[in-house]
Specification:
About 80% of the residues lie in helices and about 0% in strands. The protein is rod-shaped, with a radius of gyration of 25 Å. The chain starts with a helix and ends in a 9-residue tail after the last helix. Helix 1 packs across helix 2. With about 80 residues, the chain is mainly alpha-helical.
Length: about 80
């Protein structure tokens, strides 16, 4: 797909770009597979970053805040 867009950016027709992109992918299976794994890794890193930023970090900060406010310390020893 990206190879087609790269060829399209060189002012070629859509059909010619699609044909060139397909030929490149079929002719370079190692590069195509490597690109798939790199893109999947970047997508996974982005998803983990978003989840970490939106869910995990606020949850940890809230837990830390609760511990400090409730007991006045970072630890919450059990009181018998």
């Amino acid at each position: 797909m990206l190879t087609t867009f790269a060829v399209l950016s060189r002012d070629r027709s859509f059909v010619g770009s699609l044909s060139t992109g397909y030929t490149w992918v079929v002719g370079n299976p190692t590069h195509s597979t490597t690109l798939i794994f790199v893109y999947a890794g970047l997508l996974l890193l982005g998803a983990v970053s978003v989840i970490g930023l939106v869910i995990i970090v606020p949850a940890l900060l809230f837990t830390l805040h609760e511990g400090v406010v409730r007991d006045g310390t970072l630890h919450s020893p059990s009181k018998a």
